[in-house]
Amino acid sequence: MPNPSAFLPGPTGLGTSAARLFAQPAGGFAVPQDLGCVPGPRTVRQPPLVFAQRPWADGSMPALYCPLAVRVDHALGELVNERLVEWAEKIGLHEGRIETFRQTGFGHLVTLAHPDVDDPDRLLLAGQMNAAWWACDDYYADETDLGADPQLLASRLALAMSALDAPPPADEFGDELEAQLKSDPVLVSLTSARDHVAVHSTPSQLARVNLTSFQMWVSWNAYGAWRQSGEPVEAWRYLAARQHDSFYTSMTLSDIVGGYEVPGNLFYEDRVHRAVMRAGTAAVIVNDLHSAIREAADELPDCNIVLLVAAERGCTLREAAERAVALHNDIVAAFEADCHELRAIPSPELHHFLWALGGWLGGGLEWHGTTNRYTTEE
């Protein structure tokens, strides 16, 4: 494994995102202003979406081509974050680690990632759902010190599916399932978050959230199998799985949070689906880049595009990260082209959704540069 010190010299984390303010616009995508599908005061007017070369980490790496963050509202983010912490405490999630959860700032993430919405309750549902997904990742898939075990992963995820999509009663067997779903805080978080999503979504949107979660968890099972076998994983194989385990899952909440709906037959239309998958994959490459140092220090590292490229090509982590940046930038440029192409479809809901995905990309990058989740110091 390459030496982590070869990657990203200099500071990361809090304070290093300020340099992004100096990024120069390289293009834009504006949502039509006659959008009439979003009711009430819970959304705000969408400015043009500006794609730019954005510095990240200490600024010494090649820039990430990404939309600028549309809104940075610390007060709103803190409000949502505190409500999210209250929810976690109430259901027993992250017991003994609640301060770490607070400092991670998922409330700030969703406020950055959904810049068209200023309703704290709708932002909270996004925070809860993302926190529940991340709790599954931490406690079931990744963090062995929190009880994650690749041998138990598949059976735990099977219960997670029932937590999101409860099967009908099955006599005393259903009683056993209900007892299990109520005894595990991770499963409780999934059910609670799902119930809040259901308040603001249509049945079709809720089913989309469920099915996208299940799709993501199939990839997690692949990672678990790879860790158990110890066999080398090719970067292309990981990326194929990662594209179905990306922030695509989080992005499917965008129209629910925004108070409108992209119809199912349009959401899953080939060109739209490709654009949404591209946005999700680009966002998760940002996650891999920011977490590479921490994961490289693990005795049994998680799969990560930077680490896999470095191992496969025998290069430094910095060189591998530069390749990941280039891949990210190619994908974002393709997404930007998709947005312009899809403007030809006469759907204000779709146009708003695509704008919201760009807002998610810009806000997600901002959050990764400010959260303490991916620093190496505990």
UniProtKB/TrEMBL annotation:
It catalyses: (E)-2-methylgeranyl diphosphate + H2O = 2-methylisoborneol + diphosphate. Belongs to the terpene synthase family. 2-methylisoborneol synthase subfamily. This is 2-methylisoborneol synthase. Pfam families: Terpene_syn_C_2 (PF19086). Its EC number is 4.2.3.118. The keyword Cytoplasm does not apply. Keywords: Lyase, Magnesium, Metal-binding. Its cofactor is Mg(2+). It is an enzyme of class 4 (lyase). The keyword Membrane does not apply. It comes from Nonomuraea endophytica. GO terms for biological process: terpene metabolic process. GO terms for molecular function: metal ion binding; terpene synthase activity. The lineage of its organism: Bacteria, Bacillati, Actinomycetota, Actinomycetes, Streptosporangiales. InterPro entries: Isoprenoid_synthase_dom_sf (IPR008949), MIB_synthase (IPR047945), Terpene_cyclase-like_2 (IPR034686).
